[in-house]
Design brief:
single chain, alpha+beta, Beta-galactosidase, Chain A, domain 5, 2 domains, nine-stranded antiparallel beta sheet, 12 helices
Length: about 575
């Protein structure tokens, strides 16, 4: 196997992945009828209800989209807008849900003049919460926003209080606490039991979203969008929308630790309970109209029993913002895993640490990528040299291989026998050019995922026309109709692949030779849609490879001529 066959194998594997993804999307369940849209109502199991008095009725979480049985039709909802230094949040008085969250320091994927919206009504995206119990408010109950500041101003924190209608003597206030310089939002239910009986209840916290891909997602660069559950026992578990809709999602149902999140490229929303309270996780389909599937994934927590005339609280942390790994790691164990490197995490995590360290020194992510690529190339120099020496030797015997093909082309067994004799005479290992490259592949794939997943690349400039390393290079514009961006870096990428092809030995098979000449154009076209940071890495890596291969080839061929 030589480098060309290895590249063919990589393209074939990539094509299989793309075909599989297309097949999965094609086979997603169709929009259900109104009757089918009625999902089962999740409820705490007996183990989570252990603290409840025997007389307490089994509580249930109201289904999204259906009004609670104990409440009349709610009045028109109002929206309370909260502004901090990091985001603008819209909180609806219907359910007290966060229905929109706009991040001030990140621009939209398409229109850079607009801020990025994470929690978005267009995606049916909302952070919902409520209490489970007879007459207690849920995410379909009406709240009233109490007077108070709506902008953080010069303060360190801002509180929004939402009060539900009193029922059976129980008064509930939902309190949001927003802090300066933080994407963490504290959500607290303050419960005053003015009734004559003890109160045992549960609280639920869920994230609702439809299965529409986020802005900027393309067939060339696809990342995971869906729900995720983490527990210490089961670790990081991803839940696809399709599996949730089919009720086939597999995840830990109960634990005394862990969190639940809704993940998309670069950003995450996560409910993170504090402490070791036993919790239950659930995920279900709640709606599906017009070709979309809407799911809700959440967790249920017990509320400590509240005696008559007493008060109690139940609180949790909501993180909604960028996937900054250091911040996520401090907030909860395993939360940084939403930056998903898969089975290459053990390699990718150290690579990202080094990339961050280089950025601290140079102050620019583009130059950090270049220096990291040079460093990795230097580490693998001996392996690369062995590979290029093998390929250079293969180039020197290519004319003789062509002669053997002409003489024994009709006798494949004899041809292979004569080729092996030639390899033994010239002391050439046919696999010598492939094996050193195979060793390096996991490292370079890990680096690919680091650059693809790092939110630090978003809106990060490099040089001149490259103002966002997470977006394609569009120096020469976009082809109308095709939507294909044309940039300088992808053109340099294709050119470097052509040069590498010419430096490699020419295949004896004419058809294979023609295929290899077309490879840079077929494979290179994909890079026009790739983020600039990824293409920059590949261009630098190819230039270094060309320089090393050219030098070694010149030395080997020069020695062959002298002999």
């Amino acid at each position: 196997m030589d480098t060309r066959r290895l590249i063919l194998l990589m393209i074939f594997s990539f094509s299989l992945v793309m075909l599989w993804d297309a097949w999965e999307k094609h086979n997603q369940p169709k929009a259900p009828t109104a009757a089918e849209a009625v999902a089962s109502t999740p409820q705490p199991t007996a183990s989570l209800q252990a603290a409840a008095p025997a007389a307490t009725p089994t509580p249930t979480v109201p289904q999204a989209g259906a009004a609670p049985a104990a409440a009349a039709a709610p009045a028109a909802a109002e929206t309370v807008r909260i502004k901090t230094d990091l985001y603008t949040a819209d909180v609806s008085t219907l359910g007290g849900d966060i229905v929109r969250l706009e991040l001030a320091r990140y621009s939209a994927t398409g229109d850079k003049s607009r801020p990025f919206v994470l929690i978005d009504p267009a995606h049916r995206y909302a952070a919902q919460s409520g209490l489970i119990g007879e007459g207690l408010p849920n995410h379909r109950s009406q709240f009233v926003a109490l007077p108070g500041a709506r902008e953080i101003g010069d303060g360190d924190k801002l509180e929004l209080q939402l009060q539900a209608e009193e029922s059976n003597g129980v008064k509930v206030t939902k309190v949001y606490t927003f802090r300066r310089g933080s994407y963490q939002i504290d959500v607290r239910h303050e419960i005053v039991n003015g009734g004559a009986q003890p109160l045992a209840a549960h609280a639920y916290y869920q994230l609702q979203r439809n299965d529409t891909a986020p802005e900027g997602e393309s067939a060339m660069v696809m990342t995971f969008t869906g729900a995720a559950v983490y527990t210490e026992a089961e670790k990081y578990q991803k839940l696809t929308f399709a599996d949730i809709a089919k009720d086939k999602a597999k995840f830990a149902k109960t634990a005394e630790d862990g969190w639940l999140a809704m993940v998309q490229h670069y950003f995450v929303s996560a409910w993170v309970p504090q402490g070791k309270d036993k919790r239950e996780f659930y995920a279900r389909k709640v709606e599906g109209n017009g070709g979309e599937t809407v799911v809700a994934a959440g967790l249920i927590l017990p509320v400590a029993p509240i005696a008559a005339g007493e008060a109690g609280t139940q609180s949790i942390t909501l993180y909604a913002g960028p996937q900054e790994q250091a911040t996520l790691k401090k907030l909860a164990a395993g939360l940084d895993l939403v930056v998903d490197y898969g089975w290459l995490t053990v390699i990718a995590a150290p690579i990202f640490w080094v990339l961050q360290a280089i950025h601290t020194l140079v102050g620019n992510w583009g130059w950090a990528i270049i220096l990291l690529t040079i460093g990795i190339k230097a580490i693998f120099y001996p392996l690369s040299a062995a590979s290029y020496k093998s390929m250079a030797k293969m180039r020197t015997i290519t004319p003789r291989l062509m002669q053997l093909k002409e003489r024994f082309g009709d006798d494949k067994a004899r041809l292979n026998q004569e080729m092996m004799k030639l390899y033994q005479t010239e002391k050439i290992n046919p696999l010598g050019g492939c094996l050193p490259i195979l060793v390096q592949i996991p490292v370079f794939i890990a680096l690919y995922w680091v650059l693809l997943g790092a939110v630090e690349m978003r809106d990060a400039p490099w040089l001149g026309w490259i103002t966002d390393l997470s977006s394609p290079d569009t120096l020469f514009g976009v082809i109308p109709g095709l939507g294909m961006p044309i940039g300088l870096l992808p053109i340099l990428m294709v050119a470097s692949m052509i040069i590498q092809t010419r430096l490699n030995p020419t295949p004896p098979d004419p058809i294979q030779a023609k295929v290899m000449m077309m490879m840079p154009f077929i494979f290179g076209i994909m890079f026009f849609w790739f983020p600039s940071g990824l293409v920059l890495y590949w261009v630098v890596n190819n230039i270094l490879s060309i320089a090393q291969q050219w030098q070694i080839t010149r030395m080997i061929e020069g020695a062959a001529k002298k002999s």
